[in-house]
Amino acid sequence: MDWYSLWLEIWNNNKGKIVGIIVALFFALLVIGVGFWKTIFIFICIFIGLYIGKKIDEKVNIKESMEKLFKD
Fold first, then answer.
1. pLDDT above 90 coverage of the chain, percent
2. How far apart are CA 67 and CA 72, in angstroms?
3. Are 13 and 4 in contact (CB under 8 A)?
4. d(Cα 63, Cα 57) in Å, to the nearest integer?
5. In the chain, where are the structural domains located?
6. Fewer CB near the last or first residue (10 Å), C or N of the chain?
7. Quick one: which of 67, 48, 52 has its CA closest to 40?
8. Distance separating alpha carbons of residues 45 and 55, to the nearest angstrom
9. 2 Cβ partners below 8 Å, 6+ apart?
10. pLDDT value at residue 41
11. Using CA atoms, how far apart are residues 4 and 26, in angstroms rounded to an integer?
12. 25: pLDDT confidence band, cut at 50, 70 and 90?
């Protein structure tokens, strides 16, 4: 068995674990580098961008979606 097929098998069987480790490592490095609250702010901005991008991909009217989200 060559290295490529070994890594491919590991990836196929453990995608969630591998992605989780990478995200946790990235989070830890950000906390060490810029501080906890700045890291939280960065992640909030990322998730807002992800939400808006998802709505754009789904061809949802962003203005209507924001009005629903922030209505009185």
1. 58
2. 9
3. no
4. 14
5. 1-34, 35-72
6. C
7. 48
8. 15
9. none
10. 96
11. 25
12. very high
> Cα dist. 39→4, 22, 30, 50 in Å?
34, 15, 6, 16
In one letter, which amino acid is 61?
Answer: N
Considering only CA atoms, give the Rg of the chain: 18
Average pLDDT along the chain: 88
What are the structure tokens assigned to 30, written together?
């950000």
Structure tokens at 50: 């992800």
Q: What are phi and psi of 55, to 5 degrees?
A: -65, -40
Tokens linked to 16: 């969630």
Residue recorded with tokens 């960065």:
42
